[in-house]
Design goal:
The chain is globular and about 60 Å long. The strands form three sheets. Strands 10-9-8-11-12 form a five-stranded antiparallel beta sheet. A four-stranded antiparallel beta sheet has the order 4-7-5-6. It has three domains: 10-91 and 297-302, 3-Layer(aba) Sandwich (Rossmann fold); 100-117 and 182-277, D-amino Acid Aminotransferase, Chain A, domain 1 (2-Layer Sandwich), CATH 3.30.470; 120-179. It is built from ten helices and twelve strands. By secondary structure, it is of the alpha+beta class. The longest helix is centred in the C-terminal third of the chain and has 18 residues, at 231-248. 32% of the residues lie in helices and 22% in strands. The model has no long low-confidence stretch (mean pLDDT 94). It has helices spanning 22-38, 52-59, 77-85, 94-101, 103-112, 125-130, 212-216, 231-248, 286-293, 298-307, and strands spanning 10-15, 42-47, 63-66, 120-123, 138-142, 152-154, 175-179, 184-191, 194-203, 221-224, 253-260, 270-276. Bound molecules: adenosine-5'-diphosphate and magnesium ion.
Length: 313
């Protein structure tokens, strides 16, 4: 295979881990490791465990490609380990990762930066299960999870909040109770300092919203790229994605999720739900699809991400 002309030669791909998004991360990691090998890098994939600092201290790679999702990998923890070991790494740094992972705190920052968000409150699961904290329809979701894990849509005709929340095995921590924004599901990637295009996601018939099944099951959703919205709104969403990325201090690639209620009887509201600092990186994930639309192969995207790696992010 051709050898790279980049800054780095030996790359460790961090994947797996022990978050609820472990399986998705293993898929992202395998795809990125394969692409890096194909590009001529020396690649060591690691299924991350709690001994990761010791392993990296021995391996001493030139850089780490972070393909982790969720807790520990996306929330600033692994980024802190890499800063401590002085190993350049991809995607966002400690602070931006921690802020983005906490949807409630991220929303405070978005608001201050002029990025609109849905009204909501933070509650314990006991409070959220006891009775409606706002008139339905609303959404209940963990403050710090991803991949739609633990997300509930409480419909207009539901008398009670979901009682699954009271189960002892429900372990997702505090919750965000947020007004349901109807209409379209849109997502926009940011690469460095520029926005890529916007995908509209249509969950398959019968699926509630963009839930775990819609995200990962075959035929769970349909993507429309570029999203069919007016050019003004399109540009505005791209600007909001860059503003949200910058407001949190993100680096490398990120992806912002939006809802836009442009239904005839809708509210016209446009809100940013969250910024993903470690967006999915399987060959069929949203960011690779957006990069392809901008003319970048999966390999070129992966190379760009890894060559952007550094410390002090
Ligand atoms: N306020 C909301 N209004 C409507 N749908 C929502 C709202 N919050 C979340 N959702 C739905 O749940 C999905 C997951 O929520 P999101 O905030 O993106 O968290 P994550 O992707 O990290 O699980 C969204 O893609 C959307 O379909
Ligand atoms: Mg999301």
């Amino acid at each position: 295979m051709s050898s790279t002309t980049g800054k780095f030669h030996h790359i460790t791909v961090l994947m797996g881990g022990w978050s609820s998004e472990r399986d998705v991360s293993l898929r992202s990691g395998a795809a990125c490791a394969g692409a890096l090998e194909h590009l001529g890098y020396r690649v060591t994939p690691i299924d991350v465990n709690r001994d990761i600092a010791d392993r990296l201290a021995v391996l001493k790679p030139d850089a780490c490609f972070n393909a982790l999702h969720g807790k520990w990998g996306e929330d600033g923890c692994i980024q802190g380990v890499l800063e401590t070991l002085e190993i350049p790494y991809t995607h966002s740094g400690v602070l931006a990762s921690a802020l983005a992972m906490d949807k409630a705190r991220a929303k405070v920052i978005f608001k201050a930066a002029g990025v609109p968000v849905a009204d909501g409150i933070v509650a314990s699961r006991e409070e959220a299960a006891r009775g409606h904290l706002m008139p339905p329809p609303y959404v209940i979701k963990p403050v710090s999870e991803g991949s739609s894990v633990g997300v509930y849509l409480v419909r207009e005709d539901q008398e009670h909040p979901p009682q699954e929340l009271t189960r002892p095995d429900w372990t997702y921590g505090d919750l965000l109770v947020e007004r349901y924004i109807g209409g379209r599901e849109l997502t926009c990637a940011v690469m460095g300092d520029r926005a890529l295009d916007i995908i509209e996601i249509l969950p398959a018939d019968g699926l509630n919203f963009y839930d775990y099944e819609a995200k990962y099951a075959k035929g769970g959703s349909r993507h429309i790229l570029p999203a069919q919205i007016s050019p003004d709104i399109y540009k505005f969403i791209q600007k909001l994605a860059v503003d949200a990325h910058n407001a949190l201090g993100c680096r490398g690639v990120s992806r912002a999720d939006f809802r836009f209620d442009d239904r005839p009887a809708g509210t016209g509201e446009l809100v940013c739900l969250e910024v993903n600092t470690q967006p999915g990186m399987t060959a069929t994930s949203l960011v690779p699809e957006l990069a392809a639309h901008a003319g970048l192969t999966f390999g070129e995207l992966v190379r760009w991400i890894v060559e952007d790696a550094s410390c002090s992010r």
